[in-house]
Amino acid sequence: MAGKKTQNFNVREFKFNSLVPREEGASEGISTFEFQELDAAAHFTQNISQETIRSEREAAEETGFNFLPKVREYRGLKEQEERDLEARIQAEVQKRFEEVKQAAYEEGYNAGHSEGVEKAYAEASENLAQQIEEFGVSLAELNASKQAIYDKSREEAYQMVKNLSKWVILKEVDEKYYLVRLLEKLIHEINTKSNLVVRVNEASFGHMPEVVKIVERTLGKLTNLRLEIDHEQSENGIILESENTIIDGSFAAQMKSIDKIFETVGLND
Question: Is 47 exposed, middle or buried (0-12, 13-18, 19+ CB in 10 A)?
């Protein structure tokens, strides 16, 4: 009896790209989007005076308005706040120094009748040195807190972009021709138009014959195409299978693709 023929499947992960149709004249290749630091946005603050930034901060405080973290950073508000904080700290250090210095002098002067001004001043100076050291420790703790606040704001900004990306996909999934665009993209990716198996959820299955007809107007005849219901898919999506390749274009796979993009910047749910 002849042995059962086996097939080897090359299973590769679906890489999510924009599903918006290319504009006329656009490159046929698949381009990926890489999230990078937004250093280029620094030029937004070149023509903004410090007085304007300060007036915006004061107006926000009076009205209870909150700027987004990235807006505060690239508008220059955050930088001005940090400079103001450092200036206040320096002023407070100088003020404390002068107060303690004056107190030490007065203490030394008053004690000079019995012990001498020089001895009293030396003791007061020692006390001053201790207070300055304690203040330095407090300042270091303040800087550490400032860094923690910055890290938290950065993480919140990445989370906002991640949520926005998923919202865009959710919006596309509900569009009328989403499955048409997705099937066209997956066929280009799998690079064959014959002997294909298209798996969709039960809700989408009834629309697929019309979807296939629309795709064939653009890509040509799809020969030996089989449609199947995939009960594991709850949202609109497509898993496309050829003789040796499977591409997962399900909704869950697209969400996972976005999560992996943001894992590269340290954002993990």
Answer: exposed
Query: What is the three-class DSSP state of 133?
Result: helix
Neighbours of 106 (CB within 10 A): 12
- Give the burial class of 220: count Cβ atoms within 10 A of its Cβ; 0-12 exposed, 13-18 middle, 19 or more buried: exposed
pLDDT for 112 beyond 70: no
SS3 of 14, please?
coil
- 211 close to 186: Cβ distance less than 8 angstroms: no
Cβ(44)–Cβ(75) below 8 Å: yes
Q: Please write the tens of the pLDDT for every residue from 27-59.
A: 555 555 555 555 544 444 456 788 887 887 787
The pTM of the full predicted model, rounded to 2 decimals, is 0.38
Could you identify the residue written with the tokens 């790209």?
17
Rama region for 219: left / alpha / beta (φ>0; ψ in -120 to 50; rest): alpha
Q: What is d(CA 204, CA 230) in angstroms, rounded to the nearest whole number? A: 10
CB atoms within 10 A of CB 145: 10
CATH architecture of 177-263: 2-Layer Sandwich (3.30)
Looking only at the bridges linking them, the beta strands covering 223-229 and 194-200 are parallel
Q: Which H or E element spans position 251?
A: helix 251-263
What are phi and psi for residue 174, nearest 5 degrees?
-85, -5
Q: What are the residue ranges of CATH 3.30.2320.30 in the chain? A: 177-263
